[in-house]
Amino acid sequence: MAPFYEFGRFGDGTSLIVAILLGVAFGWFLERGGMGNARKLAGQFYFTDLSVLKLMFSAILTAMLGLFWLSWAGLLDLSRVYVPETFIVPQVAGGVVFGAGFAMGGLCPGTSCVAAATGRQDGLALVGGLLAGVFVYGEAFPLIQSFVDATARGAWTLPQALGLSYGTVVGMIVAAALGAFAGAEWLERRAERPAEPREAFQ
Amino acid sequence: MSDAARAIDGAALGATTAASVPRARVRREAATYASPYVAGVGIGLVLLLSFVLMGRGLGASGAFSSVVTAAVDAAAPSHAAGNAYYARYLGDGTVSPLRDWLVFEIIGVVIGGLASAVLAGRARWTTERGPRITNRRRLVNAFVGGAAMGLGARLARGCTSGLGLTGGATLSVGSWLFVLAAFAGAYAAAPFLRRAWR
After folding, report:
1. For chain A, how many structural domains are there in total?
2. B31-63: b or e for each residue (b if 16 or more CB lie within 10 Å)?
3. pTM to 2 decimals?
């Protein structure tokens, strides 16, 4: 029965080796998909290259459906899988700040490690910025702790919040992703067209 | 490169159009990347394997917290111990904050990313930037953007990996709120940063 670590099938030392191996595969696929290239990622925010959306949604769909089927087949105990906890206000506020930084930096924390590893100086600069931002946060923590801990909802899931079954929410996300893929393909085809006169003056 | 990857590259190359000289250079390089759907399914399988083996998903920004905590602890141990945020990463003080699952995972990301880039001939010492800004400006933007992301990710307790992918697949409400807010923030900021990228 999975998750194996949770059921004591291997120990703490082995878990760190698992971490490295999973990281190697994660970094490999990020680089294969072009996620170490800030110019490519930035295309997401100008509707010219929607690889970020396509890659993220494909990954979420794959893992989400895998979890759903493994738990349905009785091979995985979903209650032992960690669900990131919800803190409504700090997560929305942090998301907006994070997004603005993403548009400016062109890489996110994981992809900046790939960019830096492959010799991109902008990736290295972004890693430095991340460390600085986390340090500022750490130093400011005593002042902002009450805000950071506000609106805590624990391991709150979409099925609980919407009052729908697990399978229904999974189906809705699959449908939303397929719609997003179609929209992304349409936007990219549109961006391939020759620049319109209005753009020529910018 | 596998035959499948070659086929994907070939298909992508066939679909490109050379609008101008700098564009053509960009497009040709982009064409060597795998389809984002293929790479995304690959990452999804890695994420699923992480759930199956560990009962937890992938992450990234948490590793930066461990590194910062280790640095602050080395420079000013009593200051670190007196701060509730660093104290959480220090634990009882018997284990280094660097002996952390996410730190090891990120070491793997660096190795895997480099291996992939070397094998594809994409590893090189350069700066990725838009055509209208200097390298120096790009590095400043990357640093400032990174600092904003570091702050935002800690406020939200995660980033595009730990909340976006892991929380997305486990249907966490806060994760989906974070992802929607992040895209909203990025699209709100993008028009002001057009000169940096386009």
Report:
1. 1
2. bbbbbbbbbbbbbbbbbbbbbbbbbbbbbbbbb
3. 0.90
